[in-house]
Amino acid sequence: DAKTTQPPSMDCAEGRAANLPCNHSTISGNEYVYWYRQIHSQGPQYIIHGLKNNETNEMASLIITEDRKSSTLILPHATLRDTAVYYCIVRALGETSGSRLTFGEGTQLTVNP
Amino acid sequence: KAGVTQTPRYLIKTRGQQVTLSCSPISGHRSVSWYQQTPGQGLQFLFEYFSETQRNKGNFPGRFSGRQFSNSRSEMNVSTLELGDSALYLCASSSLPGTGGEQFFGPGTRLTVL
What we know:
The complex is a heterodimer of chains A (about 110) and B (about 110). Chain A contains no helices and 9 strands. Chain A has about 110 residues and is mainly beta. Chain A has a 5-stranded mixed beta sheet with strand order 1-9-8-3-4, with no helix packed on it. A 4-stranded antiparallel beta sheet of chain A has the order 2-7-6-5, with no helix packed on it. The relative contact order of chain A is 0.34. The model of chain A has no long low-confidence stretch (mean pLDDT about 95). Chain B is an all-beta fold and about 110 residues long. Helix content of chain B is about 0%, strand content about 55%. Chain B is globular, with a radius of gyration of 13 Å. The termini of chain B are far apart. The mean pLDDT of chain B is about 95. The interface of A and B includes residues 44, 45 and 97 of A.
């Protein structure tokens, strides 16, 4: 699976949009971009994933650049409960990959009142 | 639908002992993966089971083992515990491995080795 690079920490004001960047310059054509987050001492939580088109769900939006070498997770109206470590993961699907997720160090997002 | 459950939630053991952790996946999910999380190494993949067969294994010594039962419940075992095995052990379930669906994580078991 491709390696990802994320800033170690970010701050955001409550109610504002949080934009979390991820660099994955060595991504392969069959690899998806996944985002998970982990609130302190809890299990990680799935947020969203995509291949090349932008994606949106009730939690967030995922913007993937046209060359797929980077992406941005957008939390449109951050709340205090969004304070967590956010992980950007790139993985291929298929039999050999299984369900394995390779976590990096992630970005600690702190939402301030 | 009930989430992934892990038991026990907290455990204290001494060096040299062995420990067994349990994970019950979401109903209908057949794939179970295990992860170890430590402050120094972060979240690391241990192994994955599907239909009672280990499909993937991370880079951990043979002291770490697991199994899956016909009802998809899974256990992992760590023998001859070392201080460095102190960690949060997380279990995740998904419907089918490799298909891209989200994985659901349990709350974890916090293991402390003294």
